[in-house]
Amino acid sequence: MSFVVYPAIDVREGRVVRLAQGDYARETRYAEDPFELASRYAAAGAEWLHLVDLDAARRGGYTLLPLLDRIKRETSLQVQTGGGIRAHADLRRLLDAGADRVVVGSMAVDARGEVANWITRHGPERIAVALDARCAADGRWWPAAHGWTRSASITLADLVRYFARAGLRHLLCTDIARDGMLAGPNLDLYALVEGWAPNLCVQASGGVRDADDIRAAKANGCAGIVLGKALLDGRLALPQALRA
């Protein structure tokens, strides 16, 4: 499988935003309209878009169906999207609306058995599990859920192994401490994940600064990378990222 660059659009209250370390109180708003930004990414050569409903991630109830529908109708982008997936009906709604892959986060932490059933039912290409984690003082990694406001009772290692056994293919993994901080992706974390589950296609996320970070993630075995703040702040141009 080829390495995939996923430009990200995080939406809160209809606006393109980025959070620092998952903190809703540390939000940067951008002037771009979400659809116009998606269109520019498509024109620049992106094949995939990572679309996140931050309001839904916190409260449930995906709100971006009109935006998703327009992106699918008016651009060539494949879209992986999530936020607020709390039941199978939510997942089904996004797939029916044209999502190519649905990202499941909090449910993967809170109800992993149910999410494993969804993977079996819809196939490993239609679902990505997003596990966003913090490193504790003892060196163990712990996932967070519900817009990063709650920690899990199972370690990241055990959860990754569980989903690998359940047939998961696409894992999006974020070091919360790096997210939105332009500190570089945590390659040590991805090395751990590869050791826990060598067959997963891991999407690196959080902290990407430049083309060197993209090349490093690819060299360290990641299958893709999610780009947010670096693109929005103009530190990295999407064509440059795609060439990397």
Give the SSE map.
Layout: E1 4-12, E2 15-20, E3 23-29, H1 34-43, E4 48-53, H2 54-59, H3 65-74, E5 78-82, H4 88-96, E6 101-104, H5 106-110, H6 112-122, E7 127-135, E8 141-145, E9 150-151, H7 156-165, E10 170-175, H8 187-196, E11 201-205, H9 211-219, E12 224-227, H10 229-232, H11 238-243
Parallel strand pairs: 1-4, 1-12, 4-5, 5-6, 6-7, 7-10, 10-11, 11-12
Antiparallel strand pairs: 1-2, 2-3, 7-8, 8-9
Helix pairs in contact: 1-3
Protein name: 1-(5-phosphoribosyl)-5-[(5-phosphoribosylamino)methylideneamino] imidazole-4-carboxamide isomerase
Family: Belongs to the HisA/HisF family.
GO molecular function, one term: isomerase activity
How many angstroms does the end-to-end distance come to? 16 Å
Q: Give the strand order, joined by hyphens, for the main sheet.
A: 1-4-5-6-7-10-11-12
- Percent of residues in helices: 25-40%
Number of domains: 1
> Uncertain segments of ≥5 residues (pLDDT<50)?
none
The CATH C-level class name:
Alpha Beta
Give the amount of beta strand, in percent. Answer: 25-35%
Number of strands: 12
Give the integer mean of the pLDDT values: 93
The largest pleated sheet is described as: 8 strands, parallel, barrel
What order do the helices and strands follow? EEEHEHHEHEHHEEEHEHEHEHH
> CATH superfamily name?
Aldolase class I
Find the structural class using helix and strand composition.
Answer: alpha/beta
CATH architectural arrangement: Alpha-Beta Barrel
Assign the CATH topology.
Answer: TIM Barrel
Alpha plus pi helix count: 11
Q: What is the approximate shape?
A: globular
Oligomer: single chain
From the alpha carbons, calculate the radius of gyration and give it in angstroms.
16 Å
